[in-house]
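Render this sequence as a predicted structure.
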Amino acid sequence: MNTHSHHPSQNPVGRHPDRPARTRVRPTEEPSDTQAGGFSSIMKGYSLVFAAFALSVLLFITVAAFAAYQSPDPTPLIRPVAAAILAVSALIGGIVAGKRNPACPVVAGLICGGLTTALLILLSLLFRGERDLLGWGMQMSTLPLHLLGSFIARPKQKKPTHTAGKHPSQR
């Protein structure tokens, strides 16, 4: 009968045959697209961004309609009020895009602003109305205003605090 007895002094350091081997789990080098705030994460959050944009447009149009109803002739107010509503709503959409994607807020603003601009142009082509240069300019302004909103919403960098001179022995 040939049996091997394993004595702890016979095993090299760290090897224990009676214990299962542990494997070290290393973190992945690059996080997945969703974790990193990449394109798929931005697209998942776009419905929220567009909902914020659309709801703010509806809210501001409702308020503007009540205000215009008080005016004797609301016709000259239509273009400036529409431009203001579009601008504020695009800023809100950009802020939501930036807050929703803190890892890449400006890229999120660019993508969401581009999609919103494309949707506005598509809707204007489907419902053919009188289109002039000012109308196209208003639609195209959605993209830079989304960018501005996402730039505003980006996380602020913390400034380093200096501790020199604050210790009681240095006063």
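Summary. Helices lie at 39-70, 78-100, 105-126, 133-140, 142-153. The two ends are 82 Å apart (CA to CA).
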